[in-house]
Amino acid sequence: QVQLVESGGGLVQTGGSLRLSCAASGRILGTYTMGWFRQAPGKERQFVASISGSGGITSYAESVKGRFTISRDNAQNTMFLQMNSLKLEDTAVYYCNSDRSGVKVRIGQAAYWGQGTQVTVSS
48-51 long-range CB contacts below 8 Å, 24 or more apart? Predict the structure, then answer.
């Protein structure tokens, strides 16, 4: 069984930066893809970014390309999301997820999810 715990959310002004972390309990093997989703109030949960087990393949939503960077440290069982140039529309609860299937991670059907961390961007 795998448990995921997000941290690093908070309040930041537009243009600022935050770094989210997702710590996995149990061993997330290098074969597990990990990803980030977000959900703003009144909106559906949407894909943000994903990273392959080895970290060699990443994928981003168009809305965050060039601003967000996903990475992982398998030795630490931790994934990160560096968020720069934050915009008001980035305000949401951010969730990490993980699955053996990269497709399931990206379409939101991963087996494992964290509880979420709030990111609020203010003007």
Answer: 48/81, 48/94, 49/81, 50/102, 50/105, 50/106, 51/79
